[in-house]
Each structure stands twice: as C-alpha cells, then as structure tokens.
Write a structure and sequence with these properties.
By secondary structure, the chain is α+β, with helices and mostly antiparallel strands. The chain is 32% helix and 31% strand. The longest helix has 28 residues.
C-alpha cells in the first residue's frame, strides 16, 4: 500500500467513524475561525509547533510595520480528537492533524455540513521543527487562498450594476465588489469608488496607466491621483504613500496577463490618519493597455483581517474583457 493511499485511508476512516450522514445543514461559525483537531497519534509537541505557526499574517498594517506585531487572519480553536463533538464538526473550516511518515494535505468539502472545508493534514514526525513550521505556513496560505476565492465568487453577484456597466463600457474591465461600494467620481477616466461600514472606509481608484511598468512610476502615479482625489475633513489634506515603511512587491505572469501587485501603508498629509493599501497594475496583451487599481483601507483600532481579505479578493477579481 503506497503512502498516499495509506494517508487517504486514515483520513476517510476518521470521517466514516465520526460523521453523521443525516445532518447536512449549513456550516456554522465564522469564515476566519479554524477548528484545529489534534488526533490521538499526534504528540503535543508536534501539535503545538503546527498550531503556533498556522499563521497567515495580516499585511501590511500599522501594528506590524511600526511595532513589529504579527496578527493572524485566523482565529485558531485547538481541541483534542476525543472532544471533536458535533458542535465542532459543523464549522466552516476544520483542520485535522495526524502524525505520519510524510507531509500531506487533503481537502474535502461538505464532510459534516454544507459550505465547509475539512483539511486532513499529515505531519512527518521524523522531520525537524523548521520543516513542520514551513508545512504549517503552507496550510495557512492554502486556507487563505480558498477564502479569497470564496469572496471573489460571492462578490460577483453583489457588485453594483452601475459600477460594472461603467468599467465594461469605458475600460473593458470586470470586477467583483461587495455591494457597499458606490461611485464618488468618474472624471477624466479615473473611477473613484468608496465603501463604508460602521468602523471602516475603503477607497478604490481605477485609472489608465500610460508609463513604463516600474515600481517608482507606479508609486508616483498613485500619489499623483490620490492627492487629487482623496482628502479628509482637514483643509489642504491629501493621501500619500507612507515612504518610511517597506513596500511589498509581487509580480505574477499568466498566459493572458502580466500583473504587478504592491502593498504598503498610506498617510494623510495634513491630518492624523493612515492605513493599508494594495495596488495592482494589470496588463492586457490584446489591447496593449495597462490599468492601475489602488485600494485604501481606513479602520482605526479594528481587527483588519476581514477588510484586508476583501481588498485582496477585489484586486484578484479584476480582469480584462476582450471582445
């Protein structure tokens, strides 16, 4: 029996012996909560290393960049296998940790409830701590990626029609947005969108990009447009990138597009305000056009996890429509 088959058998034996097939109601709990189950063959030491590193860091946020604090997107709820009762089995995200002779992960949907993902994870108990830490972080990254994809799908049906119509008509772009967003301004082919909650504001600027795709050009263009479009109630204030903290850069090349993503912090010149930003430069090889999508978050004193994932989902959703 090969290793993969053995691992699958272990996972499914666990499911078959503990699953109530007559209860397939909707999943419970929050999307950013993870029930982490320690199987009986997994030692406390291995479990603790995995649990302590099951981190998808909120980035960038003021707390991390200025004070060095790391904040997780997820809330981890650890329990023992013997305590894994029906009240936990219906959660949206469950990670079941098993000790084995290899690292492996299998993701199953709707095991105990609808709209649920269960991650059967196997740790190689012969490996060193660094390998376990790396594996744990990979699992966290996969959970985060699945959550972003879920938000993109969900937002697709919520995007205000007037925003969709404008972007399709003017720029041949599509986007998926929460329905809280509305148009502030659309002069000079620059679309300024805003979304509000009780504790936050999100601003989006979408504009043509005519310069060469260099980071310094992206930063310059962002500052120029934001200075003209975004201010606070303080007279003479305007938004700019915070240049005293790092900018994170990520380039992605696909068969159809070459995209550049940057992340960092912004500040309000002339006022005591600041927050996170994410920007994407997307390229259409058919029309040879580039667009800059800049997203800004203001949520003082709040946990930024949900807001940051929303911004990442929005940025990931932007695509060209080539007729």
């Amino acid at each position: 029996m090969n290793k993969i088959y053995s691992y699958l058998l272990i996972g499914w034996c666990f499911v078959l012996t503990s699953c109530d097939f007559n209860q397939h109601a909707n999943s419970t709990g929050k999307y950013l909560e993870i029930i982490l189950v320690q199987r009986s063959n997994c030692s406390k030491n291995l479990f603790d290393i995995f649990r302590n590193n099951l981190i998808s860091a909120q980035k960038p946020i003021l707390e991390s960049e200025i004070y060095g604090e790391t904040k997780n997107h997820f809330k981890i709820i650890p329990i023992l296998e013997k305590d894994f009762s029906s009240i936990f089995r219906t959660h949206k995200n469950i990670v079941i940790l098993n000790s084995s002779k290899e690292f492996n992960i299998q993701v199953n949907k709707d095991v105990w409830s609808k709209n649920q993902k269960v991650y059967f994870c196997s740790i190689d108990n012969q490996e060193n701590d660094d390998s376990i830490i790396k594996f744990s972080q990979q699992v966290a990254a996969q959970i985060k990626d699945n959550e972003i994809k879920r938000r993109v799908r969900n937002h697709h049906n919520l995007t205000p029609p007037n925003i969709l119509s404008y972007l399709q008509r003017k720029h041949q772009l599509s986007i998926s947005l929460p329905n809280r967003f509305f148009i502030i301004d659309s002069l000079n082919e620059i679309l300024y969108l805003r979304g509000e909650t009780k504790t936050s504001s999100q601003m989006i600027l979408i504009s043509p990009f005519l310069q060469s795709p260099k980071i310094e050009n992206i930063v310059f263009e962002k500052n120029k447009i934001a200075k003209d479009k975004i201010s606070s109630s303080a007279q003479g204030s305007y938004l700019q990138i915070e240049d005293r903290t790092p900018i994170y850069i990520d380039s992605v090349i696909t068969p159809n597009q070459k995209n550049i993503t940057i992340k960092g912090l912004w500040r309000m010149e002339g006022d005591f305000m600041g927050g996170s930003f994410m920007s994407g430069l997307i390229y259409n090889p058919i029309t040879m056009k580039r667009f800059l999508i800049s997203l800004y978050l203001y949520a003082p004193g709040e946990n930024k996890a949900n807001y940051l994932l929303d911004l990442e989902a929005i940025l990931k959703s932007v695509k060209y429509i080539n007729n």
